[in-house]
Design a protein that fits this description.
The protein has 240 residues and is an alpha+beta fold. The strands form two sheets. A five-stranded mixed sheet has the order 1-2-3-4-5. A three-stranded antiparallel sheet has the order 6-8-7.
Length: 240
């Protein structure tokens, strides 16, 4: 599929509409990213999404594109609601994904680059030792059935009570880390058993944990509000 891509602009490629595709594909990526192993399968998934009923404009993929479950990871698609025969929209588990609360978060520190320069290996070794990661990884936090029920019911408040975060952290979390309308009783026993072992793990796929530096500040007011400054050492993680 890669050989069918047409460069439309810098870092914008189009997959022409053909066969059962209802719209063309559009991929936002550099040429070097497209050369990564497995990318051909991800582009095929862009074409597969383009065949779905109701899709409009294009089957798109962002720069983090790679092979996923149905949709490619990084896939984006819009659908007309009238394609659902009077219902109010489209929900695609293959498009949304099923990592609970999957997303990216930045943790600020009081350290600067010079504090960690020369200590990268020690930091990396410690992170690998303390943070379970990879396919099938299990977290170090062991939960009883009652504790798991608490996690499902009050969310991040449980982590605050256990000392895993500060109360001030809750103030900058969406919904303060707990959605009032959550219905934990609808979570199956199988899902509970599987999920309880993963609490505290990083996961696999495109999940990551990186120690980074604030290289440049583009918005001084926003940076000040978030407590960020040039040269600051921060930790970015993608998990769920």
């Amino acid at each position: 599929m890669i050989d069918k891509l047409i460069s439309k602009d810098k870092n914008i490629y189009e997959l022409p509409q053909e066969g059962k595709m209802r719209v063309p594909g559009r991929i936002y990526s550099s040429e070097s990213l497209l050369s990564h192993p497995g990318m051909d399968s991800a582009v095929q998934q862009v074409a597969n999404v383009a065949q779905l009923p109701g899709i409009v404009n294009a089957s798109m993929a962002m720069p983090d594109i790679h092979w996923g479950y149905g949709f490619p990871i990084g896939g984006v698609a819009a659908f007309r609601s009238n394609s659902t025969k009077g219902k109010t929209g489209v929900i695609s588990p293959g498009g949304v994904g099923f990592d609970i609360n999957c997303g990216v978060r930045l943790l600020r520190t009081d350290l600067v680059e010079s504090d960690i320069r020369g200590k990268q290996k020690e930091i990396i070794d410690e992170l690998y030792k303390e943070v379970p990661a990879g396919l099938g990884s299990k977290g170090k936090i062991r939960l009883s059935d009652r504790e798991l029920e608490s996690v499902l019911s009050i969310g991040s408040k449980w982590a605050e009570e256990k000392g895993y975060l500060w109360k001030s952290d809750l103030e900058v979390l969406e919904e303060n880390g707990c959605i009032d309308t959550a219905l934990p009783e609808h979570v199956s026993d199988y899902a509970r058993k599987r999920g309880s072992k993963q609490v505290g793990s990083l996961g696999s796929g495109n999940h990551f944990l990186e120690v980074q530096k604030v290289d440049e500040v583009f918005d001084e007011a926003a940076a000040k509000a978030f407590g960020l400054f040039e040269g600051q050492a921060v930790v970015m993680m993608h998990t769920g």
